Amino acid sequence: MKDKLAIIVPYRDRQEHLDVFVPHMREFFKDKGIDYEIFIAEQTDDRPFNYGKLCNVVVKEIGEEYTYFAFHDIDMLPISDDCDYGYPDSPTHLATNVEAHENKLPYPQYFGGVVLISREDFENANGYSNEYWGYGFEDLDLLYRLQRSDQNEVVRESRRNQKEKIQTHKLGIIVPYRDRPQQLKRFISHMEDYLKDIEYEIFIVEQSDAKPFNRGKLLNVGYKSACDNGCDYFVFHDVDMLPENVDYSYSDKPLHLATHLQEHDYETTFFDYFGGVTMFTKEDFKTINGFSNEYWGWGFEDDDLLVRCIQSDLELDTETTRLDDIKEFHAFKFDGEAHLKEFIPRVGKYLEGQGIDYQIYFAHQVDDKLFNRGATKNIAAKHAFEDGCDYIVWHDIDMIPDMDGGCDYTFPKDKPRHIATNISQMNYELKYEEYFGGAILFSKEQVEKTNGYSNDYWDWGMEDDDLFWRCVLEGYVEESKMEFTTEPQDFISFNGKDSYVEIPCT
């Protein structure tokens, strides 16, 4: 009977490697005269990876016609025709001459990568242990099992002058840029000195027009160029952030690297901050469809990116265990949009604390006309209801709930609920008796009955008073007292000067 080889590959979440491995192996075996088949053993649960157990499962499930096995890491590729995958008289370690290991064993007992074993020898050793979770040690255990059994000597050296190549990753560092030549010069010099052991390429994506800066769009363009140049993972990098002690090696899940900033006493800038320096695999970045192209001016594209990751159920490591100190040598000056930077994490954390399933909608008026709060709120409500929301809260961006207060964001069953009734800037009182602004909850039915806000009030004010009287007409208010809420709702309101620290540009 002719011997038949089963190439057994334990696998999880490494699609880029799989896309390379299978065609490479087919090409390699094309003229070898070996009857073989490749088995990909995928672990689909969330527990730590169990290499040995996956190998054992495949051996158990495949037929007896497979007389020997190659237990094969997915990132190991044979590159020499001398690599001998023929039937082994003794258990043979093939991955002893690996480029990434300087063509020597990484340590004396190393028995991983690619191991060739006959079915008889594997069964005599009782296979791999099932008890090793996480990466490593199952290869050492197998070596000891083979050495303890009454088999031929384990072959630790290559039977020929064969070479294996580890699939190395190539990093694309993508930097959005405009008019910061000194920072760019310093950045490139620093990164060239810093990244000594990683294959990488830096892509500077420059916006040359006079429109507001669009960081997300530039990063998407840079991503495409990096893909075309063979990169399989990416770091989206601000030009004014320099690593001090950061690990840029490949990660199979999104990483936020800029979590310890010098300018912020080596702490995260704010809760849920996802900007500065982020790392993605090619597959994950495609899954979330990249950055939004719709954010002009500084900010929010990183918040949007975080939301995309969450909505795509990607496993995030925003508090990475990597040591990641970033020197921020240019301090940003926060503009008026800093209210939004404060609003997102504070309100989000509050709603999560109440166990509420929510989505935040920002209605941004982009024309030069006077601000129309009513129209923008109606547009946002329309989108929210189309997306399946049962109720909404129309919310001023400078109103955030006191984390120790009792603001009730739950469904307003019988009538709308005004929750901004107890405001710090008004000594925790209403501004005036019929004040109906700040933050108000409406069900879909209540919005339809009142027909929402008027679209006819331009500039600040009056649209909330109009909404109040619409509620009166629909019977939601029995008299001109605020009957929308049974308990005072604690809110704190902040203005621009108090809500953030202005740091002058240098």
From TrEMBL:
Any single biological process term in GO: carbohydrate metabolic process
Residues annotated as domain Galactosyltransferase N-terminal: 2-85, 151-250, 337-404
Keyword Glycoprotein in record: yes
Domain Galactosyltransferase C-terminal as annotated: residue spans: 256-328, 417-476
One GO cellular component term: Golgi apparatus
Keyword line: Glycoprotein, Glycosyltransferase, Membrane, Signal-anchor, Transferase, Transmembrane, Transmembrane helix
Any one GO MF annotation of this record: galactosyltransferase activity
Topology relative to the membrane: Single-pass type II membrane protein
Organism domain of life: Eukaryota
Membrane-spanning segments: none
Pathway note: Protein modification; protein glycosylation
Localization in the cell: Membrane
UniProt record similarity statement: Belongs to the glycosyltransferase 7 family.
PANTHER family, per the entry: BETA-1,4-GALACTOSYLTRANSFERASE (PTHR19300), BETA-1,4-N-ACETYLGALACTOSAMINYLTRANSFERASE (PTHR19300:SF57)
Name of the protein in question: Uncharacterized protein
Taxon lineage: Eukaryota, Metazoa, Ecdysozoa, Arthropoda, Crustacea
